[in-house]
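>> received
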Amino acid sequence: MIRIGNASGFYGDRFTAWREMLDGGELDVLTGDYLAELTMLILARDRLRDPDLGYAKTFLRQLETCLGTALERGVRIVTNAGGLNPAGLAAAIESLTTRLGLAAKVGYVEGDTIQRPDALSANAYLGAFGIAACLDGGADVVVTGRVTDASLVVGPAIARYGWSRDDLDQLAGATVAGHLVECGAQVTGGNFSFFTELADGGHRPGFPIAEVHADGSTVLTKHPGTGGAVTAETVTAQLLYEVAGPAYLGPDVVTRLDTVTLSPDGPDRVRVSGVRGTPPPATLKVGVNNLGGFRNSMTFVLCGLDIEAKAALVRGQIEEAVGTDGLEFTLARTDHPDAADTEAASALLHVHLRHGDKARTGRAFSAAAVELALASYPGCTLTTLPGDATPYGVFTADEVPQDAVAHVAVLPGGERVPIAPPTRTASVQGAPAQQNPITGGPSLPPTRRGALGELVGARSGDKGGDANLGVWARNDAAYAWLRDWLTIACLAELLPETAPLSVRRYELPNLRAVNFVIEGLLGAGVAASTRFDPQAKALGELLRGRVVDLPADVPTGPTVATGVTP
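>> returned
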């Protein structure tokens, strides 16, 4: 098997993780994922200021602390920190190696940039074969631009085992492994619904390792002595993160998530097996970032009585001062009746303005809010200072044919190796939007009132303007109830903001889970969203906190089940 670790799940993750992973135990490859839809926008703005930038600068500083150790121990490094400028980062790494007196061979992958003159950035999600070519060409460090997150693991597995594009089950198995480790500590107890049950309370989870075997099966684990845990439930939580239906689309393979089987393999070890793959689609996803305009926000504190009337007064005053176009008001009722202190007695009125006119969105708006301090509701105060407008981006996704992209691996010696697209592709049939037609959901008598989270865990996140919400049951009996009860109609009652939106629901019995894709919940994407939770990270915990009629005879803890074992 090949031991592939991860030391970064996003741009800004634990700085010391690279050092911790190299010092913690044996590895063959160490990966780092830095790219997200919002990150690409940040890097695009960096490159506007300086054409030599466009990559994750943090990675270069991290590499300086540990490149010598990686070379000494034979650990190869694969990262998508190249962002919009993989060639630029590769050159910076070569300069770093010279300064450190080391002899690292650096390769990089390019070809993801799509020419869109009206866009800040447009990048296709490439697959793993370019990474494999760089490793086969002797690279110690491989830098990519926009590849799928899972490709950082799939590429080294291809290089180790010599898989071809026809080895679909193996590619699918490695894709699951890549998806599991791509978010770093999120699979080892980070952001875990039942964190209070972890031995260390979730204090400092270690980063993950995927032991990928020649048949595509994997054992998920972590270095001994590190925090957090690797269990069937922590793995399930990450499997449900930012996915849609059972068919998980990728540039090299379509991975069938409904074939995944999890089983224990010892302490902090979970075996992932049985994964099946089908040919990939004929197109690649393209992420496009455009400048959407300018934004600004001010927050008023409303204390005591007449909260709704106070909010209405502010709204009328702000609209009269700057006009209604682009204004958005959100009243958060954080106040408690008969409270003994100001904070407990207060609600928050968030006022957002998004518009193409920077002057109107800037000081003209924030000054108008501040000017109300002595001329509005009783007790008027704000939590924000007047400030200028900031630009925001809008993320959209479309597709290009696989053969329209010049996927190239640039080897350490400078040789450019074209990566041919797959010759066998297939159209992918989407699963039905509502797999269970029940719209009232029977509760199993007798019932008791309790928080939904007593029986289920959840993991949620963003995909452009959509939100993903995965919910898993802790045992077979709980899943039998959850599957019939948590319908789209039920979700709309529990989370009213989803009611007017298009929602797709999928069942994943092997994971005891149902997954929802809530279209448009995040508007034009994270960078443009004005929601209190702009990336929908807390949506799952909001759902788990709702008090419902629970089946009284269903156990609350994890038990052994078919397909998934704790």
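>> DSSP finds 14 helices and 26 strands in the chain.
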